[in-house]
Amino acid sequence: MSADDRRRAAADAGARVLDLLGALPGVVGLYVPIGDELHPRWLVEALASRGRQLALPCTPRWAAPMVFRRWAPGDRLARGRMDVPEPPREALVVDPDVVVVPPVAFDRRGFRIGYGGGFYDRTLPAMRARKPVAAIGIAFACQACPKVPDEPHDVPMDAVVTETEVIERRTPMAARANP
To answer: pTM, whole model, 2 decimals?
Structure first.
């Protein structure tokens, strides 16, 4: 994709995520993109302008779940364990109510392939043991696959959002926000 096409697609996907998040209150866990991941810049700016509390993950020891720390655009970031920018240790630890997840590839069942560390597959169950947490993947439509390999420990996303559609698993996100 050209740089312009990527920016346009990212903004379109971000607008779709923003629509989903309107029905889901609370802290939104985001990510700092690496490699060719969709850059959530537009979504971050829109959420911040609406006063939503945001958080970013901090990379833990290799086999541990991630910790999310409060963050806002303009806040300082430090180099994390895997060279990914993250909030510094003094930033407040929070449990997001919604986590926006970057897949490298995904399928319509909600399964994803990441960079192979299993961080989200460990983090989401740990967070959900404390409270309900929605996981929303955000990706380019061209990252869709007929079926990604999955194993028993893999955690599917509740929805995957692209520039062309919202793919929801099970109960629609809006219905879960208003039980």
So the answer is: 0.89
